[in-house]
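Exercise 7 asks you to align residues with C-alpha cells for two separate proteins.
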Amino acid sequence: MFDSLSCLALFPKYALFDKIKALIIIRSNPKKVKKWAYHAKMNYSHKYYLVKAERYRVLGYEDKAIECYDKAIYLANKYEYLLIEALANELSAKFYMEKGDNKTARIYMQDAYECYLNWGADAKVEDLKKSYPHYYLP
C-alpha cells in the first residue's frame, strides 16, 4: 500500500519513463491488496480503496476517486484503523484543494486532524496546523 501511495504522490514529478514504471507498480500492487482484502476484509479493504482512490486521482477520474476516498474512510473507521482513516481524510482533503473546493477540503482536513490527534500522532498534528493554518485547525 505505502509503495503504491508513494509512487502516486510523486507521479506528477516523474519523467515519462519513470511514469511508465510507476504505472506498472501501481497496477500490480492493488491486485495483491485486493486479493488480501477478499480474504481478510477488515485488514485490507480500506487500504485497497485508498490506493484505488489515489490511482483514480492521478489518472483524472475524479468521481471514482471521490467514491473510493469515502469508501476507504468509511471502512477504516468501521474496522478501527485510525491511521488509515486519518491518511484517507488527509489525501481526500488535498484532492479537494487541488480542485479548488476549499470548503469540502476543510471538512476532510479537520477529520484528518482529529484522527491523527486521537491516534496520538502529535508531530503530524503540529505539521497539519503549520501547513494548513487557513483550515482552522484547533
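Second protein for Exercise 7:
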Amino acid sequence: MINTGRYTARIDGEFAVFLIGMRINKPLRVDKWMPVMAAMPRMLKELAINPDLGLLHYDMWVGRTVILVQYWRSLDQLMNYALDRDAHHLPAWQAFNKGATDDAVGIWHETYVSGPGRYENVYVNMPTFGLGRAVGVIPAEGSLARARDRISL
C-alpha cells in the first residue's frame, strides 16, 4: 500500500543500522557462494521468530551483490547475536572463514549507530519502507516538515 503524502519515522533512543552483503566474484563457483547465500535466510528466520534478539526490520536486494539493510534496537543486541554460540550466525561465519581460501565470493558489512539528533528520513508517496517499516511512520508536517528540523530533534 502506498502512503500518499509525506511521512517520517522517529525512534526513541539509540539504534543500529547494519548493512551486510555478499558479492559473487566467480559466478560459476556455485559450490563456494551458494552456502554463503543459503546461510542468511536461516539467520533472518531465527531473528524474525525471536524479536527479543533486537532485529527490528530488514530490506534485501539480490543481484551479483546481495545487500541487506538491517535496523537493530541496539548495537549491543546486534553484537550479542553475532557472537551467540547457540544462534545461526557464528557457525555460518566460522564456515565462511574456513572456506574462504579463494576469491570466489566476498562478504562485507558496515555498522552505524544513530540516535536523537543524528538521523532524519522522509518517505513521499511510498509504501512503508526502511526505518519507517521498522518503527512506523507519522506525517512529516509541522516541526517534522523539513530535513533540517527532523535531524535536530
